[in-house]
Structure formats: structure tokens, C-alpha cells
Write a structure and sequence with these properties.
Chain lengths: 451, 271
């Protein structure tokens, strides 16, 4: 019992840290209530013979979980039926299925930055707290103290409801080419000003080397700008629901984006997504590349990369106001329409357990949300990721903030501001473009929040 | 008929009168979606992009396809084999074609700029430039669909009578005169068929554009279809998307009627 009480207080502490606020304290049952809920010890075999359906995204993480479903079935006696579709289609199918009121799945994987607010507004996910606080329903292995703060922020609603378990973090980092930096005697930048300076010095069009590369393609490009926006102390929406995307901080960030991309970026960068950026960096033709942390594997693969062993993994430099790494994350939740919430909850616990989180890191399928996975993975002999990458990951997770506003029409947000940013690369005025985009998106946001 | 065509069509018209985003309540708004559409700069631009793309993607393959047909209509060694090779692009899957072209267009690593450099020309930005993106996308369409035009025209040429040519030659007509005054009028109905097919294909082109440029850079290659896709499947604005569908349908209908009218006229002229 003592252990259990410890778990609960740890859970509560982590939830509060995650930004759940005072509401979480009131909403979480106290230890006394928990004792009343307790119905005996936890048993993985509790739902033996049941069958659940899980709906995953086709990705290295989805593949990895699917590969080990047999392990879950052996552990619990629950049969798993799974469907895996590409990200874009998964998001569309989720909306359509949930709207039908009778989705075909019990467990669903979600990208927080796109689906969190949408799912929350529509109450499509089950509040996990009753099961989380029921000793017979929650494995002692589930320890929120082990979960990174940024991941919990995404999984918990402002009113304290726990709607999912986070699995993977994607903080944005700067990949840099050490060879190019060393050749010019430049140190990795610590601030935005140093970053601009380094890009200018390293940019060498005569050798086909760009000082900086990142996403210019509309929609995909927004996190690059928000990475700067957060460092300039800017945000997305104020307390009154008004967009703050045309403030001086936002404009400064956009100017930085414009300069880095159009002056020190490669020709045609307005059409670049992560894959074009990656291939340029792989060829040793870019000094810095700002993107999500998940690209170490191709960069260190000798069959694909010309920069093996020369890649530096840098934490996002500090802006004039603060040092922030824009964070994206994904996790899994239980459908509110599911008739098998118990078995589905067991699946969630299994999917986020230490073994699976460690496997994810070992397979370079993502950056686990559980901090213990890093030590566990590094201890194994077949772990290939560079130490600097692991350090960068942990340091970035510690300074992470959501890289996109947590709103339902986030795709429209990305589209509208994405077009503005692409226009800036092609010479448009940052202040004017942001003003136009803000005016265009405000009514969409108002309507969505009113609905 | 009723279930698969009439009902979805009526339902789309009905939906276009609502302000409905999936996940929210639908409100009846009458014609408001249409009013908004015709004052929406982005939608109007997408109509312009569609017209520009269609014009190029119809005219160029039509001209090149006709030239190719005239060449392949003559007797020369290995004609059969070369004809088969020429028609091969047509058989490729559009998405696969688009992916390959995406690689070829890459400004730093694509083969097209390498080829330009071989003949001493400066590199181009292709689909990565807002001004070149539509002509570059049309290049893919040309490569992909010129063979279709050629096959249709070749069919027309095969059916031509030989007598008019013989008598014209006796009268001293030049090759150009033979083409201009005999071949062209006689294959005109086939050209119209090719034009109808190409127009419909070009107006509804989606896969190539979506894969290669996603309507970008910015919105520089956003056609009606891409705009529609965004509204319906990325933003879930079903009412607005339905209105786009209705307008789009009206445009296609008008185009089809126009082309059918032209076809009738060429038939009368030929008859």
C-alpha cells in the first residue's frame, strides 16, 4: 500500500508539473478514495480471451509495436487486431470514424500537435483517471515520474483529465556539419545572433554549400518559424483567444526565418520539405539543418550519408528571450465509444512500458518519453546512436514547449501561415504577410472555439 | 443511376448550403458559401491556375502528338518497335511517374539541371519556383500523355483515303498544302476527340500536382482540385468544399458542352 500511495503522489506531482494546474489536484482522487476503488492486485490476465482493435500510424513506431503484439497477447491473453495506415490517411479516417459514433477501433494512436485539441473538443477519448487510480487496473510499472514533462503536458487536459499516454517525443534540434564548422573555425552557436552569424560565414554558394537548410514548403515550414518564435518570447494565442502571430516577436522570428532561408538557404528552398533538407545535409552541402530529432539513423548510415561521424547534434540556440526547443509528440488513447476500455487500457500500458520504450530507442524508431529508456538503451551493446544525440535529446526535452498551438484547426493554421512563410522566402514583407495571415486565420479560430 | 449519381449529386448541392465543419453543428446558410467563394482570392487564383495548367496541358500534347503521329504514319525501319517505346509513358502509374519527376526536378541533385549544365545552360528551379512550377508540371503531363494523342491521331490517319492525296499531288500541291488542306480537315474530328479527353484529364489532374508540388510553392500551383482537397480532407469544411464541387462541376459541364459543340461543327464541316 505504501508503494501504491507513493505512486499516486508521484503521479499527481508529475501531472501538476506537466502544467495541469490546480484543477488537476481537485480532479484527482485522493489516496482515501483510491483505497475504496482498489479491487485487489493488478493482473495482466484479467481480460483473458477478449479481443481489441488498435488503429496505428504507419511509421517505425507503429511497425515496432505491431511486431511485438504477440508478446502482449501472450502476456494478457487478449487478442489484438491492428490496422496501420499512413499518417495523413490515419487522421482523415479517425475523424470520419469518430463522427460515425461507432469507430472500428478501441485504441488509437494520435499526433498531439494535430489531433489533441480536436479529440478533446469532441470528447473522442476516454478519461483514463478512473482506471489509472484503480490498483487492480494499473500495472506498478506505469510510473509517471519516469515520463518527460513535455509528453505529459500533451497527454493531460488543462482540467486535469488524462486522455492518453505519450509514447514518443520529437523536439526540434539543429543538425550541424562539424567538418564545415571546423574548417572555418566556428563554434556551435549558443544564441540566435550567433546562429545567423554562423550561417552567413558558412554559406558558400561557389561550393554549393548552404549555411542553413530547413523546410520552406507551406504547412511543413511552420515549425521552423515557431522554433524561432518561441525563442523570441512569442506565443500563438493570448488569454482572450486572440492570435499573437503578428506581434513584434512573431515578426522578428519571421525575419530570421526569411534571412536564414532566402539568404543562406539553397536555391529553391521554398519547395523543400524535410526530405529535401535531409538529402542536402546528407551530401555535406548544408552547414546547419533545423528539424525534428528523429533523423540520426539516416545521417549515420554509411550507405546513405556522406557525413557519417561528422554530424553534430545541437540543442536549439537561445533566443533573445528564452531558450526553447519546439516540441511535437505522439501517444495513444482509448476511444470513448469502445466497449472494451479495460483491455484497451492494458494495451496502452503495455505499449508504453519500459521494454517497448527501450526497444523504440534501440531501433531508432523514435525518442521515448520515458527517461529510463535512455540509460537502458545505452547500456546495451547494439545501441548505435551517438552519445551527443542522446544528450541533445535529453537537454532539448528539458527546455521543450509545444511547437504549434493546441487548437482544433491546426492544419488550417499551418496552411495559412505556411503560405505566408513561403511568400517571405520569395521576397514578401514578413510584417505584411503575418498581418494578412493573422487576419485570415482569426475568424477560423473564433469559429472553432465557439463551436 | 439514382443511387450512385443522382443522390450523391443532390446531396452535395444540399450540403453546399450549410456551414458545416466535421465535428461541429451544421447551420443552414443558403448561398453564403458561394458568395464567400467568389470573393475568396485563393479560390479565384486556383481557378486561374487550373485554366493555365489546362490550356498548356491540352495544346502542347495535341501539337506534339499530331507531329509524332505524322512521323509514325510514315514507313521507316523499326517503326513498330519505336512506336511501342513511344507509347510506354502512358502505361506508367501517375503517382510513380510523379515521384520520379520530383527527383529529376530537384534543383541541386536532379538530373534535369545536370542535363542543362551539359549544354551550357544555367540551372532552373523547376517546380521550386512560383513562376515555373505550372509549366514544369505541364512538362510531366506532356511526357505522360502525348502518346495518347498520337495514338488517337494515328487512328485517324490510318483511316484516310489515298485518292485526295494522289490528285492533289498531280495538281502540284506541296507537302505543307497536303497537310493543311487535306490531312488536317480529315483528322480534325479525331483531334477534337483527343482534345476532349485531354481537357477532361487536365482539368481534373490531381495526383501529379499533389505528389510533386502539393500546390506550392505557397499556392502557386494550387488548382481547383487541390483547393477542394484541402477544404474537404485537411480542413473538413464540408459545406465550403461542397460549394467548390458544385462550381467545379459547372465549369466541367460548360467545357464539355463547348467541346461537344465544336465536335459537332467539325463533323458537319467534314460531312
Amino acid at each position: 500500500m505504501a508503494d501504491h500511495d507513493h505512486d499516486v503522489s508521484a503521479t499527481r506531482r508529475r501531472l501538476l508539473q506537466a502544467g495541469a494546474g490546480a484543477a488537476a489536484l481537485g480532479a484527482l482522487p485522493g489516496a482515501g478514495q483510491l483505497a475504496a476503488h482498489a479491487q485487489g492486485a493488478f493482473d495482466w490476465k484479467k481480460y483473458k480471451g477478449e479481443k481489441i482493435e488498435v488503429f496505428l500510424v504507419k511509421s517505425p513506431r507503429g511497425d515496432l509495436l505491431t511486431k511485438f503484439h504477440k508478446e502482449f497477447e501472450d502476456l494478457t491473453g487478449i487478442t489484438v487486431g491492428s490496422e496501420m495506415v499512413p499518417e495523413q490517411q490515419q487522421r482523415q479516417k479517425a475523424v470520419i470514424e469518430f463522427n460515425s459514433g461507432n469507430p472500428s477501433f478501441d485504441v488509437i494512436a494520435l499526433s498531439y500537435h494535430v489531433q489533441k485539441r480536436q479529440f478533446a473538443k469532441n470528447n473522442w477519448l476516454t478519461d483514463l483517471r478512473p482506471m489509472l487510480n484503480d490498483k487492480s487496473m494499473t500495472s506498478p510499472d506505469l510510473d509517471f515520474a519516469d515520463f518527460a514533462k513535455g509528453g505529459l503536458f500533451y497527454a493531460v487536459e488543462p482540467d486535469g483529465r488524462v486522455m492518453s499516454l505519450p509514447l514518443n517525443l520529437d523536439p526540434w534540434v539543429v543538425y550541424y556539419n562539424k567538418e564545415l564548422f571546423d574548417a572555418k573555425g566556428i563554434a556551435y552557436p549558443k544564441t540566435f545572433a550567433e546562429m545567423m552569424d554562423a550561417a552567413a560565414k558558412l554559406n558558400d554558394p561557389s561550393k554549393g554549400v548552404s549555411g542553413f537548410v530547413g523546410r520552406g514548403l507551406k504547412n511543413a515550414n511552420v515549425p521552423v518559424w515557431t522554433s524561432f518564435l518561441l525563442g523570441y518570447g512569442g506565443g500563438f494565442i493570448d488569454a482572450g483567444g486572440k492570435l499573437t502571430t503578428d506581434t513584434p516577436a512573431a515578426i522578428d522570428a519571421a525575419k530570421m526565418y526569411q534571412t536564414l532561408m532566402s539568404k543562406y538557404g539553397p536555391q529553391g528552398v521554398a519547395g523543400y520539405n524535410w526530405n529535401e533538407s535531409q538529402s542536402l545535409f546528407l551530401q555535406g552541402k548544408a552547414a546547419m539543418w533545423l528539424d525534428g530529432i528523429g533523423f540520426a539513423q539516416p545521417l549515420e548510415d554509411p550507405t546513405k550519408s556522406r557525413v557519417v561521424g561528422k554530424v553534430g547534434y545541437g540543442v536549439m540556440p537561445a533566443g533573445p528571450k528564452q531558450q526553447v526547443s519546439a516540441l511535437f509528440a505522439d501517444g495513444e488513447g482509448v476511444s470513448t465509444y469502445s466497449k472494451k476500455k479495460g483491455p484497451a487500457w492494458f494495451y496502452l500500458q503495455w505499449a508504453s512500458n519500459k521494454a517497448n520504450q527501450t526497444r523504440m530507442l534501440q531501433a531508432a524508431a523514435g525518442a521515448p518519453v520515458r527517461t529510463s529508456a535512455y540509460a537502458a538503451a545505452q547500456a546495451s551493446s547494439d545501441f548505435k546512436a551517438p552519445k551527443q544525440w542522446v544528450d541533445c535529446m535529453l537537454a532539448s526535452a528539458a527546455i521543450a514547449q509545444p511547437g504549434l498551438p493546441v487548437i482544433a484547426p491546426v492544419t488550417e493554421f499551418r496552411d495559412v501561415f505556411g503560405v505566408a512563410l513561403t511568400n517571405m522566402i520569395n521576397g514578401a514583407d514578413p510584417a505584411g504577410e503575418l498581418k494578412k495571415a493573422t487576419a485570415e486565420f482569426q475568424p477560423v479560430l473564433d469559429k472553432s472555439e465557439k463551436a | 443511376m439514382g443511387a450512385v449519381i443522382v443522390f450523391p449529386w443532390m446531396f452535395t448541392v444540399w450540403m453546399s448550403a450549410f456551414d458545416w465543419k466535421i465535428g461541429t453543428e451544421a447551420h443552414f446558410v443558403g448561398l453564403e458559401n458561394y458568395v464567400k467563394l467568389f470573393t475568396n482570392r485563393r479560390f479565384l487564383e486556383s481557378v486561374g491556375h487550373t485554366a493555365y495548367f489546362t490550356a498548356l496541358a491540352v495544346v502542347v500534347p495535341l501539337v506534339l502528338g499530331t507531329v509524332a503521329a505524322l512521323i509514325f504514319h510514315r514507313e521507316f525501319p523499326f517503326r513498330g518497335a519505336l512506336r511501342a517505346i513511344f507509347t510506354m509513358p502512358m502505361m506508367a502509374t501517375p503517382v510513380a511517374v510523379a515521384l520520379v519527376w520530383t527527383m529529376m526536378f530537384h534543383p541541386q541533385q536532379g538530373v534535369l539541371n545536370y542535363l542543362l549544365s551539359l549544354v551550357g545552360l544555367p540551372p532552373s528551379l523547376w517546380v521550386y519556383s512560383p513562376t515555373l512550377v505550372i509549366p514544369s508540371l505541364v512538362l510531366v503531363e506532356i511526357w505522360h500523355w502525348t502518346p495518347l494523342v498520337m495514338l488517337i491521331v494515328l487512328g485517324g490517319l490510318a483511316a484516310l483515303p489515298t485518292e485526295p492525296y494522289e490528285s492533289a499531288r498531280l495538281d502540284g500541291a506541296t507537302e505543307w498544302q497536303l497537310f493543311r488542306f487535306i490531312t488536317l480537315p480529315l483528322v480534325a474530328p479525331f483531334l477534337v476527340v483527343a482534345a476532349v479527353i485531354r481537357t477532361i484529364d487536365a482539368v481534373k489532374a490531381f495526383d501529379t500536382i499533389y505528389v510533386i508540388s502539393q500546390g506550392g510553392p505557397g499556392t502557386a500551383s494550387e488548382t481547383i482540385n487541390l483547393y477542394l482537397y484541402l477544404q474537404a480532407f485537411a480542413f473538413y469544411n464540408i459545406g465550403n468544399a461542397s460549394a467548390v464541387v458544385v462550381v467545379f462541376f459547372a465549369i466541367i459541364l460548360a467545357l464539355a458542352l463547348l467541346l461537344l459543340h465544336v465536335r459537332q461543327r467539325t463533323k458537319w464541316a467534314a460531312g
